[in-house]
């Protein structure tokens, strides 16, 4: 397995998601629980990739001089030693107090190598040097591999370390080909333990090197995920990782921020652990209401929630003739003049997550402009409070939203054309909100924002529930190897 591929799978365990138990030390607003099914899914991927990483695995040359009865001292050299096939009979992954343990048992390996021996003997004429060579195949049976990884939060990044890593070989068979068969057993007896030790050492070093490289990579992961040119999602790790007997998780800040800006301080009370009604789901991601509040505040501060409407399904509403019987003084002062509506939010939208329901209130000002030549003339401003019901869905790895209009209230903020009768204007505003404002808002909400998931993994069959101040996404996960950009990680 190439180092980048190894990194993908381990990142999935240790940096993909965020945990179930908040802490009072630092604030987090997105939480995630990886269930035992999720861990088993990752374990199966890791097992498959570990096999790829270990084949082929080249071992250092082995040399030894041994004394064989009736022969004397024989110098033996084993070269071109390679592990060509590895099979792991069973494996498991288990979080615990000391870290995450990944164990494989009933491991079998097949090796190939070249052998050469030489020894000298004496005759009444002159010393004679005798040598021979050939190939050998080795089969390892009943081996075990144990790897325990430590997880810590280091200045907002995940620190990965090796707590324990070892390989144990219990039995092996060596079959030599070529040369003098009467010397085979002597060579086998002399080198069996040395070959076992070399295999154990090579596998252990390979795994340690992979963990070290992964640890270095995790330190370089960005602490913000760009959403668009205005906002990013703060994915800084906070508090220590959470490990239990059958779950794994982390905490991140999770609020929307401007690039390189500090996250606003919001209160986050202790929450109950994340859970899913369907225990078969692999992951559970919980997003606190504060995540959506921070998004609304950031886009409002960036003056992003402002647009000019100059086209509408009922285009007559954008000409004073369409207002002739609603606001007669407008038509009288500006007969048959085109209009546009300058819509901006007067304060950040209010989002409330309730039991199986999401309520949103949008406060906006609508300035009615009359267009005369190149001149834009503001004639009135109407304040709106739009009440709607929200819903969310997972599209690939994005959490997208949708707004449905429930009701609205309106009031006249100012007017340059005299008093306006709000009850006459209300049907027009309702139509404009339904046909212009809501579709525009849904076009924005439909793009969603990215959940903190590494490229290559995709949520599948996600289910969403809302409770008091929290949205929970319960999902399975699939891995699409071809979608990962290997160029983003150094080999």
From TrEMBL:
<feature type="domain" description="Lipid-binding serum glycoprotein N-terminal">
    <location>
        <begin position="34"/>
        <end position="261"/>
    </location>
</feature>
<dbReference type="InterPro" id="IPR030675">
    <property type="entry name" value="BPI/LBP"/>
</dbReference>
<protein>
    <recommendedName>
        <fullName>BPI/LBP family protein</fullName>
    </recommendedName>
</protein>
<dbReference type="InterPro" id="IPR001124">
    <property type="entry name" value="Lipid-bd_serum_glycop_C"/>
</dbReference>
<feature type="domain" description="Lipid-binding serum glycoprotein C-terminal">
    <location>
        <begin position="277"/>
        <end position="475"/>
    </location>
</feature>
<feature type="signal peptide">
    <location>
        <begin position="1"/>
        <end position="25"/>
    </location>
</feature>
<keyword id="KW-0325">Glycoprotein</keyword>
<dbReference type="InterPro" id="IPR017942">
    <property type="entry name" value="Lipid-bd_serum_glycop_N"/>
</dbReference>
<keyword id="KW-0732">Signal</keyword>
<dbReference type="InterPro" id="IPR045897">
    <property type="entry name" value="BPI/LBP_pln"/>
</dbReference>
<dbReference type="Pfam" id="PF02886">
    <property type="entry name" value="LBP_BPI_CETP_C"/>
</dbReference>
<dbReference type="Pfam" id="PF01273">
    <property type="entry name" value="LBP_BPI_CETP"/>
</dbReference>
<dbReference type="InterPro" id="IPR017943">
    <property type="entry name" value="Bactericidal_perm-incr_a/b_dom"/>
</dbReference>
<comment type="similarity">
    <text>Belongs to the BPI/LBP/Plunc superfamily. BPI/LBP (TC 1.C.40) family.</text>
</comment>
<dbReference type="GO" id="GO:0005615">
    <property type="term" value="C:extracellular space"/>
</dbReference>
<dbReference type="GO" id="GO:0008289">
    <property type="term" value="F:lipid binding"/>
</dbReference>
């Amino acid at each position: 397995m190439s180092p980048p591929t190894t990194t993908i799978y381990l990142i999935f365990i240790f940096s993909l998601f965020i945990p179930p138990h908040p802490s009072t030390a630092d604030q987090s607003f997105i939480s995630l629980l990886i269930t035992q099914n999720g861990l088993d899914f990752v374990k199966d991927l890791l097992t498959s990739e570990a096999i790829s990483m270990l084949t082929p695995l080249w071992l250092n040359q082995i040399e030894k001089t041994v004394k064989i009865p009736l022969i004397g001292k024989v110098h033996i050299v084993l070269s071109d030693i390679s592990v060509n096939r590895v099979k792991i009979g069973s494996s498991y992954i288990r979080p615990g107090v000391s870290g995450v343990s990944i164990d494989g048992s009933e491991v079998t390996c097949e090796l190939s190598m070249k052998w050469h021996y030489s020894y000298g003997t004496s005759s009444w004429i002159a010393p004679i040097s005798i040598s021979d060579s050939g190939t050998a195949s080795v089969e390892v049976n009943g081996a075990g591999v144990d790897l325990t990884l430590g997880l810590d939060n280091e200045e907002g990044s995940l620190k990965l370390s090796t707590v324990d890593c070892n390989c144990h070989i219990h039995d092996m068979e060596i079959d030599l080909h070529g040369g003098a068969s009467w010397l085979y057993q002597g060579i086998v007896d002399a080198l069996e333990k040395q070959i076992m030790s070399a295999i154990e050492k090579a596998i252990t070093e390979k795994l340690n090197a992979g963990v070290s490289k992964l640890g270095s990579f995790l330190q370089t992961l960005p602490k913000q995920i760009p959403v668009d040119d205005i906002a990013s999602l703060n994915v800084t790790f906070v508090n220590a990782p959470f490990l239990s007997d059958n779950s794994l998780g982390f905490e991140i800040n999770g609020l929307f921020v401007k690039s390189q800006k500090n996250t606003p301080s919001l209160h986050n009370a202790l929450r109950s652990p994340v859970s899913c009604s369907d225990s078969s789901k692999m992951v559970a991601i919980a997003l606190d209401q504060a995540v959506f509040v921070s998004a609304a505040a950031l886009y409002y501060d960036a003056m992003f929630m402002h647009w000019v409407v100059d086209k509408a399904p009922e285009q007559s509403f954008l000409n004073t003739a369409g207002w002739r019987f609603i606001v007669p003084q407008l038509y009288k002062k500006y007969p048959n003049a085109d209009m546009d509506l300058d819509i901006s939010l007067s304060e950040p939208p209010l989002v409330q997550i309730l039991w199986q329901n999401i309520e949103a209130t949008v406060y906006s000002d609508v300035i009615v402009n009359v267009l005369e030549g190149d001149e834009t003339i503001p004639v009135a401003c109407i304040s709106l409070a739009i009440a709607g019901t929200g819903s969310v869905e997972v599209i690939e790895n994005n959490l997208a939203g949708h707004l449905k209009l429930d009701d609205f209230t309106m009031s006249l903020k100012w007017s340059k054309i005299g008093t306006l009768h709000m009850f006459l204007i209300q049907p027009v505003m309702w139509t404009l909100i339904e046909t212009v404002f809501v579709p525009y808002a849904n076009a924005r909400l439909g793009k969603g924002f990215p959940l903190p998931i590494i490229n290559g993994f995709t949520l599948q069959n996600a289910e969403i529930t809302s409770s008091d101040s929290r949205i929970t996404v319960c999902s399975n996960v699939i891995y699409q190897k071809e979608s990962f950009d290997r160029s983003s990680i150094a080999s």
